[in-house]
Write a structure and sequence with these properties.
- It is a single chain.
- The chain is built from twelve helices and eight strands.
- By secondary structure, it is an alpha/beta fold.
- The strands form two sheets. Strands 5-4-1-6-7-8 form a six-stranded parallel β-sheet, sandwiched between helices.
- The radius of gyration is 20 Å and the shape is elongated.
- The protein starts with a strand and ends in a 5-residue tail after the last helix.
């Protein structure tokens, strides 16, 4: 096997989750504040109940309205509350709520070093499920990570999400690589299902701080089977517990060559 490209998931892989309960409360507070600012009065408790399904429900129908999927989710929520908020309010709410939640998410401290090391030998791409692409582009730019990737593929821009292999195949096409020349690094079952379905080498980031602290070493030479898969581990061709393991893993896979 010759790996020529390494594609990365974003959230939970290059970005680390913090206190997500606090993040959700920050998103809610930002939304309530913005709605009130635009003279769209709403009961706080009613808004809280409506927000429970903001991200978990099926996507609103895709129409040519100039809104992202996340903005259409917000628009649907506001309509349910009988609030007549225009597109300006919806767009402002999308930007501010995601920014509020992003305060509880940080870049993995090893991401810059690992991307720099891998970029010397491999083509890098980013593949993320996200309903509001402008936010991802802003996050990557603010973190100075965007320049490492030859291609950035976001579900909200291409209309397909992991675990569908289609989103990974879009990235493969954009980088000029065959799927069997690509490794995909992610932290979820959806990531590993997509990698296997796309015929890519799936590397599961077992994001366990205790394992990494204990010096756990990567695993490879695994033979996953989707028929018997219960966890991401069952689907992965290799497992890491720390991003710093990636250069060594791919060196081993290449037969130890520099």
């Amino acid at each position: 096997m010759e790996i020529k490209g390494i594609f990365f998931d974003l959230y939970g892989t290059l970005l680390k989750y913090g206190d997500m309960q606090a993040a959700w409360l920050a998103v809610f507070d930002a939304l309530h504040r913005i709605i009130s600012r635009y003279d769209c009065p709403v009961d706080r408790n009613a808004l809280w109940e409506s927000c429970r399904g903001l991200l978990g429900e099926a996507e609103p129908p895709c129409i040519e309205d100039g809104l992202t999927v996340y903005e259409r989710r917000l628009e649907r929520l506001l309509k349910r509350l009988n609030l007549r908020c225009n597109a300006e309010v919806v767009k402002h709410a999308a930007t501010e709520t995601l920014a509020a939640g992003n305060r509880y998410i940080s870049v993995d401290p090893d991401a810059e070093f690992v991307l720099q090391a891998l970029s010397q030998r491999y083509t890098l791409a980013l593949v993320s499920n996200f309903d509001h692409p402008p936010h991802i582009h802003a996050v990557l730019k603010d973190a100075a990570l965007d320049h490492w990737f030859k291609s950035i593929v976001i579900s909200g821009e291409v209309g397909v999400k992991k675990p569908s292999p289609g989103i990974l195949l879009v990235a493969a096409h954009a980088t000029g690589l065959r799927p069997d020349q690509v490794a995909f690094v992610g932290d979820s079952r959806e990531d590993m299902e997509a990698a296997q379905a796309a015929s890519m080498f799936g590397v599961w980031f077992e994001n366990d701080g205790e394992a990494a602290a204990a010096g756990a070493h990567y695993e490879h030479d695994r033979l996953p089977s989707i028929a018997n898969a219960h966890t991401p581990r069952d689907l992965a061709r290799a497992i890491i517990r720390d991003l710093r393991e990636l250069p060594g893993l791919f060196k081993d896979l290449a037969g130890g060559s520099a």
